[in-house]
UniProtKB/TrEMBL annotation:
Pfam families: Galactosyl_T (PF01762)
UniProt entry tagged with the keyword Ribosomal protein: no
Coiled coil (UniProt feature): none
Signal peptide coordinates: 1-27
Name listed for the protein in its UniProt record: Hexosyltransferase
Compartmental location: Golgi apparatus membrane
Family: Belongs to the glycosyltransferase 31 family.
Pathway noted in the entry: Protein modification; protein glycosylation
Superkingdom of this protein's organism: Eukaryota
Originating organism: Dromaius novaehollandiae
Topology of the protein relative to the lipid bilayer: Single-pass type II membrane protein
GO-annotated biological processes: lipid metabolic process; protein O-linked glycosylation
Gene (name only): LOC112993607
Enzyme class, first EC level, given as a word: transferase
């Protein structure tokens, strides 16, 4: 080839490069101005699109969850256990009964623990004012700056975990719901004295493989689109009825949440983040997905029970206290309940 031919080729490639660059800048601008589908952005999987120039696809926008002028609950530094209870703004009765039963503290327990309710923005002004009054009276509600809807549960839990890691730094965090019973008579002591896993802990009631299929039916409460999460199956994860995280795991999960796009299924999202962070979910029969008629002796073993009405919470709390037993019985109760002990 002649030299002028080379020159033309060089000019053309330079022009092409310049054009590409302009396109990239434009694309980034468009993405900033019109974030597709709000917080649940359109991209195969967050971390795959971290392409320089296009800007990394964002995970959870933590700063936006904290905006707002609500007074946070107080939280003592360095407790053994912080219990985060997801609760809808209108579930006043469920919160009251929890305060009267398993969240009630007698004196100063040797293994310090605390319960905090996670509540978002209520749709009705009257309900929102009620939440504010309740927080002023009890000081145990963390109000987040997100619309309180079922499909925003993920944001609720991320907000709670972030707050816990910034303001409390407990040794362990239990995430649970307001229709669950927590055996506070035993769990803090169990974590501090019986359990030997201080770090890397992510434990709860795990779902079987069939139950980990991603639901693609748009009318379902648990619908997740292929753009939001591409694989057909979630990694092993603990049911949202209750799972315990050691603080280091909570922080790894929060770190991963900045990169991985949230999906509306809260417990599955935590499982995805744990997998990202290299943390394996551990199964424990102490977390019961169903409320059968447990006998007193079961309360020496179980730590979280799902699906209780406010009335059942009171009955469970009575049985739990009747199940208080000397140290020998506690050791025996570290094994799964004997068949005779179930109903
Ligand atoms: C979640 O909360 C945000 C912020 O309040 C809101 O814009 C969005 O519509 C909510 N999403 C859903 C699915 O409810």
């Amino acid at each position: 080839m002649r030299w002028w031919c080379w020159k033309r080729l060089l000019c053309a490639s330079l022009l092409l490069l310049l054009l590409l660059w302009c396109l990239l800048l434009l694309a980034r601008d468009v993405q900033k101005k019109w974030p597709v589908a709000g917080r649940f952005r359109l991209a195969p999987r967050g971390q795959l699109l971290a392409w320089p120039g296009l800007g990394a696809v964002q995970g959870v926008d933590f700063a936006s969850l904290f905006a707002g002028s609500h007074a946070s609950p107080r939280c003592d530094w360095g407790q053994v256990l912080l219990i985060l209870v997801t609760s809808a703004p209108g579930n006043v009765e469920a919160r009251h009964v929890i305060r009267r039963t398993w969240a009630a503290q007698e004196g100063q327990p040797p293994n310090r623990w605390q319960t905090v309710f996670l509540v978002g923005q209520a749709a009705e002004a009257e309900v929102a004012r009620g939440v504010q009054r309740e927080q002023q009276e009890f000081g145990d509600i963390l109000v987040g700056n997100y619309k309180d809807t079922y499909r925003n549960l993920t944001l609720k839990v991320m907000h709670g975990l972030k707050w816990a890691s910034k303001k409390c730094r407990p040794r362990y965090i239990l995430k649970t719901d307001d229709d669950c019973f927590v055996n506070t008579d035993r769990l803090p002591a169990f974590l501090a004295e019986v359990n030997t896993v201080r770090t890397g802990l992510y434990v709860g009631s795990l779902f079987s493989q069939e139950k980990r299929q991603v639901i693609r039916e748009p009318s379902s409460k648990w619908y997740v689109s292929r753009q939001d999460y591409h694989p057909d199956e979630y990694p092993p994860y603990a049911s949202g009825i209750g799972y315990v995280l050691s603080l280091d795991v909570a922080e790894k999960i929060l770190e991963a949440a900045r990169r991985v796009r949230p999906i509306p299924v809260e417990d599955a999202y935590v499982g995805i983040l744990a997998e990202e962070a290299g943390v394996r979910a551990k199964a424990s029969a102490r977390f019961a997905k169903h409320n059968v008629r447990w006998r007193v002796c079961n309360y020496r073993y179980l730590m979280v029970i799902h699906h209780l009405s406010p009335r059942e919470q009171e009955a469970a709390w009575r049985r739990c206290r009747r199940g208080r037993a000397p140290a020998v019985a506690v050791r025996a109760a570290s094994r799964p309940p004997a068949p005779g002990c179930r109903r």
